[in-house]
Design brief:
The chain is 30% helix and 16% strand. The radius of gyration is 14 Å and the shape is globular. By secondary structure, the chain is an alpha/beta fold. Strands 2-1-3-4-5 form a five-stranded mixed β-sheet, with helices on both faces. The C terminus is likely disordered.
């Protein structure tokens, strides 16, 4: 299984991100952008897009700023648009699926069609807003 962890950078320390990756690492490959070794010759935006495109599971880490940044909204909407299995990691470390009453966001995210890139290779994020969440 491939997991893509989506989070608001300003709400999480590297230690917390390591804990999150460790929680899922026994289940498969876990992509946490700030914990990855990035090749400087490869566009980081494209690396994120590719990781999301290959994910089988999307883990959105609930926090105060999660859906306030352009990147997390784009990741969330893109995962919906691509039909990736989604779950929320709640602050109490519980996992909530979209069908769970504790799902923290609207089940029909209003930006899913407007925000998500119809073709994953076409990045809809501007260069000036690169993963500054």
């Amino acid at each position: 299984m491939r997991y893509f962890v989506s989070y608001a950078r300003r709400d999480h320390t590297i230690e917390r991100l390591c804990e999150i990756r460790a929680r899922f690492s026994d289940l498969g490959c876990v992509y946490v952008d700030d914990l990855e070794m990035h090749d400087p010759s490869v566009d980081r935006t494209q690396t994120v897009v590719n990781a999301l495109a290959h994910a089988e599971n999307f883990i959105a880490v609930q926090s105060e700023n999660y859906l306030t940044t352009e990147w997390t909204r784009w990741e969330f909407a893109s995962a919906l648009h691509m039909g990736i299995e989604m779950a929320a990691l709640l602050p109490n470390n519980r996992i909530a699926k979209r069908s769970d009453p504790q799902w923290p966001w609207p089940r029909h995210f209003p930006h899913a069609r407007a925000t998500a890139a119809p073709v994953v290779c076409e990045v809809s994020i501007t260069e000036s807003s690169r993963r500054q969440s």
